[in-house]
Design brief:
This protein has 273 residues and is mainly alpha-helical. Helices cover 71% and strands 0% of the residues. The longest helix has 34 residues. 24% of the residues are buried.
Length: 273
């Protein structure tokens, strides 16, 4: 056996060890859903249950409030992500490829929120949506997050590296800037769209503070907000809220598994000019 092949085996084994350590808490949480509370807290620790009991999963999948919260959160996160990709990429295209008065000044203005901690504007943001009568509505969960400076910045960096000959040829053929955007730039934008889109969806799915501040209608509870309510209501039933947390984490894990190829490609372009 050559030293190169032995090094490869060691690296694979080390990678498997890291993967096991990273996945162990998730695997334990999934399996813990099939245990009773006494088995979860049993000493000494036992990974697999003595008796597989699906009661926790059956209770949650039979809970109308839990299923409604999952559906509502998925709708809010999905629609917000699609709209954010559209509007962020439009702004990115304008700043990357168009010429207009005060462009540099406006770009500096757009970048200001990058230096402002989000927590510092929560109260002003709440006052604004309250005066607009958006509290306790789906819109209050979506509108503040449709446009984000990070998304505009990241997509703009990608657009700056698309050859100008593409748009020049299209403009010579009579295409408008919007047609250049929809016919050329949009189809080429998969890598940055995946990075920005996954980040947007993840942020919306895990959103907790903003829904707590703006939503009191149980029918509009977001999943993290509902899990906090479950923890207060079923705090003694460890298996139940642990199972709820596991189910809530699965869509994000599936999302990363589906788009991992594009996420890696997007990370490669993140260092471009």
């Amino acid at each position: 056996m050559t030293s190169r092949s032995s090094d490869g085996i060691v690296l694979r084994l080390f990678g498997l060890l890291i993967a096991f350590v990273a996945l162990f808490p998730l695997l334990w949480a999934i399996i813990a859903g099939f245990k009773s509370d006494s088995q979860i807290l049993a000493v000494p620790f036992r990974f697999f249950p003595k008796v597989w009991d699906p009661t926790n999963y059956a209770a949650l999948f039979g809970d109308e409030a839990f299923l409604r919260s999952l559906a509502t959160t998925f709708f809010v996160a999905g629609v917000t992500t699609v709209l954010s990709l559209f509007f962020n990429s439009l702004a990115a295209f304008a700043f990357a490829r168009m010429t207009f008065p005060f462009k540099k000044l406006l770009w500096a203005y757009v970048m200001i929120p990058l230096f402002v901690p989000a927590i510092s504007i929560l109260i002003p943001s709440y006052i604004i949506v309250s005066k607009l009568h958006l509290v306790d509505s789906v819109l209050v969960l979506m509108l503040p997050f449709i446009v984000g400076v990070y998304g505009v910045f990241f997509i703009r960096q990608f657009y700056l590296n698309i050859p100008s000959s593409y748009e020049e040829a299209a403009i010579i053929d009579g295409a408008s800037y919007f047609q250049v955007y929809t016919k050329i730039f949009w189809p080429l934008s998969h890598p940055p769209f995946v990075i920005v889109g996954v980040g947007s969806f993840l942020g919306m799915w895990n959103s907790f503070v903003w829904p707590i501040m703006t939503i009191s209608n149980p029918k509009l509870f977001q999943i993290m907000q509902l899990l906090a309510y479950f923890r207060n209501q079923y705090g003694s039933e460890i298996g139940l809220w642990l199972t709820g947390s596991t189910i809530a984490a699965l869509p994000i894990i599936i999302l990363f598994l589906v788009f991992q190829k594009y996420i890696i490609e997007g990370l490669k372009i993140s260092g471009l000019k």
